[in-house]
Amino acid sequence: xxxxxxxxxxxGVANTAAHWIVFALLFMLGLNQATSNGLAxxxxxxxxxxxxxxxxxxxxxxxxxxxxxxxSMGLVSIWIGWLGDVFAWPVIxxxxxxxxxxxxxxxxxxxxxxxxxxx
Length: 119
Known about the structure:
By secondary structure, this protein is mostly helical.
């Protein structure tokens, strides 16, 4: 499990960078935090799912697994963005909080649900 968590964390660095860049671009274009975070999540989640399927869990990507992962974690992403809007959090707080939550929750969800049942 340590090896998987290490690999998941490395993939997380790549998808976090993608998420933050897309979020920043969308937010600078005038979208609110919830929308920016949700769309940035879709880009990062797609990258994350494919890399983790092959590199972390040694599984073949599956359409249902991808859809379930994106839907479930996407709701978390939008919820954190919504909280950022409601409480007028600084953008960096929204990004850091979502990144930390998605690392822990995303790994558990991927290991024990997504790549266990959808491969």
